[in-house]
Amino acid sequence: MALLVLLRDYAARNRIALSCATVDHGLRPEAAAEAEGVAAYCAAHDVPHVTLKWTGWNGKGNTQNAARVARYRLLADWARGQGITDIALGHTQDDQAETVLMGLARASGVDGLSAMAARRDDRGLCWHRPLLAMSRAQLRGFLRGRGVAWCEDPSNEDDQFERIKARRALATLADLGVDRASLAQVAGNMAQARSALEHQTMQAVRDLVCLRGGGAAMPWSGFLGLPQEIARRLLVAAIDWIAAPSHAPRQKALAAALAAAETSDSATVAGCRLIRVGDTFWIFREFQAVAHIRSDASALWDDRWQIFGDQNAEVSEIRALGEDGLLQCPEWRGTDLPRTLLLATPAVWQGDVLIAAPVAQSTSAWRAEVIKRPGCLFDRVFGH
User: pLDDT band at residue 250, thresholds of 50, 70 and 90?
Assistant: First the structure.
């Protein structure tokens, strides 16, 4: 509510169009009435409002994480549908401090301890957190001063959640000088360190990486010569560009994959294949990760490939080239791309008949392009 009131003031001063979305996760019976209260405030102050409802969850796994993933997805889909480019979120200094504390409990590195960014690009949108320097107590005081009511979420007192345990621990740590402000400062310091590491990673990408056939290739000797943290970040960035997992692979999984690639020349991690061919280190999509994916020619395939081709052709679907398709591409060796990479590239099919394999064989009628994502490090490096 504080974010809404503050943004309403800001939008009025700067003549910016403001819309509001409330996510009802359906986890508490009171949530619907709370969303109605926000809608009523918005209606009284001429702010367009919509309630986005989360449905279809099977109730398994981490509740808060599943709700968070759904919340961002619902907000992103709504914003893009409305032509909205910027979304503001109401995270506070308290949230930042709790995130740092949970990161310490997990022995997180620089990224985990840098917590939440004040601004980031993701899903084609710019996400803002303008309240990270403000405490919850300050925001409650602001609302009281404005005569605006708000609702307290009872789950914020539920000790079964990790964040609530961190919140309670902060009260104990305050005697040591470990308070919300100091932990938020740690996040700021780590964010600066992360920015420096990202800068070095981008330089390593420029120096070493070549993008071909939807995969990334680089000299293995050059990769091994990088500082360990920069090499890890480069590999994570490559996986993000190729597979866009919802979470970066854990450090243990990356280390195991690299060790396997070093000893056996091949490994898999996070839906990607890692292979060495001589001194060339390849990272590309794993065939098994895309073997089931089907789409029509007008839709993105594997959420990253856009297919362009003969609009008059009767095309039933786009799916992975696979072994059957590669057998119908006698010229594939001329691409100088690994065979296993080509298996996971998009192909145009009509039933069992291969119409085109734009990556595996040249054709003037069809082409395949990897779409760019503004928040992806590889696309920031190669997007110009």
Answer: confident
CATH for 2-92+116-155 is: 3.40.50.620
Q: Domain locations in the chain?
A: 2-92+116-155, 197-286, 288-370
pLDDT tens digits, residue range 175-187? 777 888 888 899 9
Distance CA 272, CA 287 (A): 8
Angstrom CA distances, 170 to 153, 196, 285, stand at 19, 29, 43
Helix (H) or strand (E) holding 87: strand 86-88
For tokens 């409330």, what's the residue?
22
* Number of residues in the chain: 384
- What is the distance between the alpha carbons of residues 200 and 213, in angstroms, rounded to a whole number? 25
Helix H segments across the chain? 2-14, 31-44, 63-82, 93-105, 110-113, 136-146, 162-173, 180-208, 220-224, 228-243, 251-264, 287-290, 322-327, 339-343, 377-382
β partners of residue 350? 353
Joined together, the tokens standing for residue 166 give: 């961190």
Cβ-based neighbours of 144, under 8 Å, separated by 6 or more: none
CATH fold, domain 197-286, is: 3.30.465
Backbone angles phi, psi at 113, to 5 degrees: -85, -15
The yes-or-no verdict on residue 149 having pLDDT over 70 is yes
